[in-house]
From TrEMBL:
The chain crosses the membrane at residues 80-100. PANTHER family: PERIPLASMIC SIGNAL SENSOR AND SIGMA FACTOR ACTIVATOR FECR-RELATED, PROTEIN FECR. The keyword Membrane applies. Residues 177-272 form the FecR protein domain. Residues 318-386 form the Protein FecR C-terminal domain. This is FecR family protein. One of its GO terms (molecular function) is sigma factor antagonist activity. Keywords: Membrane, Transmembrane, Transmembrane helix. It comes from the Bacteria. It comes from Aquimarina spongiae.
Amino acid sequence: MDNYLTIIRKYLKGDCSSEEKEWLKQWVNANEENKALFKKEIKESYAAKEHLEVDVEGAFERFVKGIQQKETKVISLKPVLRVIGYAAAVAAVVFGIYTYRSGNSSFEITTPEVVQAEDTSSDKIKIVQADGTISYLGLDDTASIKDAEGNLVVKKNEDQLVIQGENHSTKTEYLQISIPKGKLFQLALSDGTKVWLNAASALKFPRHFNPEDKNRLVYLEGEGFFDVVTNTKQPFIVRTGEVDVEVLGTQFNVSSYEDDATVKTTLVEGSVAISDPEQEDVRLKLTPNYQAIFSKNNKALERKKVDPALFTSWMHKKIILQNESFAEVYKRIERTYDVEITSLNQKLNNTRFTGEFDIENVEQILKVFSETIAFTYEIKDKKITINP
């Protein structure tokens, strides 16, 4: 067994094996000196991260609580031999422990004066104009959207919505576009910025960015990938219900679904600054291949190095898992396939997986999981129930 400093540092990086965690548990509990050394390493580890403060006692308590939980069984996913369309390529499973906490914080990006239109089709793109007018576009539709004066607002160009026209008013007019579950779509904003919206996501943005405004401000609910046109005089800001992401010109992904416990910002290119509007001293800068994770529960902001491809795979219609519990995974499956999943199988929920799926068929993905950990499920309309 490696020396205690090596094991502690591996734990803080999330690289500990189950045997190493058990050894660390026994070592920490051996005496007060070991416990103090462990807390010291926690403090020094967080101190090395810019702009972050650490609750040492809280971090220690999470360690104690975590290692007392029943460890997750290590398994291997079996690839399906007969598949519909693409093959489901699945890799080995990685050990881990997960505790799910649902975030209650959200924000409403629909303007108060908006009323529901008669057509409330759940499989169409919803467009809300500044005056409250609601329109729906099917993904195969070719129609364009106009305002009350007959001016072109949105033009559909194959798989992209292009925002049209200039705002001659001194007041910034916002549009809101919502993508249904099971769909992906791309927007081209008036400044040339491109946005890919994931399933069950919405973006509120100016129809035309006013050069007199200090920032180019947009509001995101759900998940989007942004390829921002550079304008050093007018930074681009993505506002979620929890954090602001400020950029000058870059490529990044923001995931901020209401039912997720965290907001994740992943930087592909350029640089961004993440901040909490409610806490002026909470600000974190990212460089490429790093991710900022904001906890909705304790308002903590942390950074870690990642492979951006894992967090932008949805743009290529893939689901990539990396040490994720099924309790985390099935929320993404729900959004991707426009289904509702109720899992009563705690053994499955607590098991972590690493693997990759080409997005083709929800039943095919469930078959992969069921051949790895035996379970049965029932499908009725869009509701899937996984039995204990």
